[in-house]
Write a structure and sequence with these properties.
A hairpin with a 5-residue loop joins β3 and β4. This protein has 3 domains: about 30 residues; about 70 residues, wza like domain (wza like fold, 2-Layer Sandwich), CATH 3.30.1950.10; about 80 residues, Outer membrane lipoprotein wza domain like (Outer membrane lipoprotein wza fold like). The N and C termini lie far apart (about 100 Å). It is of the alpha+beta class and about 220 residues long. The protein is built from 4 helices and 12 strands, in the order αββββββαβββαββαβ. A 5-stranded mixed β-sheet has the order 9-8-12-10-11. A 3-stranded antiparallel β-sheet has the order 4-3-7. Helix content is about 20%, strand content about 30%. The longest helix has 19 residues.
């Protein structure tokens, strides 16, 4: 092919490419090269994955007053305001001055307040009274070879290992195989090493318990 023919052929090919970029191309023989059109509309293509919808976490149910709960009841707006510490008995009642037993189990603190107010007003003791009910936290105590000795809140069904962890864990002088729980007149002894290895069950700590981690004899 001569240089002149090759230049003409190159110009024809270049023109075809430029025409294709604008939507159609003119072939060297005079025909048209149609612009490429996809068989499937990209906007209608479904991707192979779908974003999972966001699901709002369910709010935890509010805990009502239960038998055994300790309450602080404030009686205000009366000639002689009172601050009363009471415990809900097995029947779900608390006993208050003048009105006697009031059912509070199974309801919220605000509902208990209204029930106590009604008891005083309906009983004819006061025309108006303001009642504030606050549930007191349960506590246990940690002593001995734990990093933080003292009183700690008892949250839910707390086990012995959880109670020790909440008190900061063991000191370097602790003997985990000798741990005791003092519960009233009882002394319950446990091997926390075996418990941590799942050899023994992890017992529950109860309100007012004193957890004592003993000290190693040989340091």
């Amino acid at each position: 092919m001569s240089a002149r023919c090759f230049s003409g052929f190159l110009a024809a090919v270049l023109g075809a490419v430029l025409s294709a970029a604008s939507g159609c191309a003119t072939l060297p023989g005079g025909g048209e090269l149609a612009a490429y059109t996809p068989d499937v509309d990209p906007a209608g293509v479904q991707l192979g994955f779908r974003e999972a919808p966001l699901v709002a976490a369910a709010a935890p149910a509010a805990r009502g007053i239960l038998g055994g709960d300790k309450l602080h009841v404030s009686l205000r707006g009366i000639p002689n305001p009172e601050e009363i510490q009471v415990e809900v008995n097995e029947q779900g009642n608390i006993t208050l001055p003048l009105v006697g037993p009031v059912k509070v189990a199974g309801v919220s603190s605000s509902e208990a307040e209204r029930a106590i107010e009604r008891a005083f007003v309906d009983g004819g003791y006061y025309r108006k009274i303001t009642v504030i009910v606050v549930a007191q936290e349960d506590y246990y105590f940690a002593q001995g070879e734990v990093r933080n000795q003292g009183r700690f809140p008892l949250v839910g069904e707390m086990t012995l290992l959880q109670a020790i962890a909440s008190a900061g864990g063991y000191t370097e002088y602790a003997k985990p195989s000798r741990v005791k729980i003092m519960r009233g007149d009882q002394i319950l002894r446990y091997d926390a090493d075996r418990i941590s290895r799942r050899k023994d069950p992890d017992p529950l700590v109860k309100r007012g318990d004193i957890v004592v981690v003993e000290r190693r004899v040989f340091l």
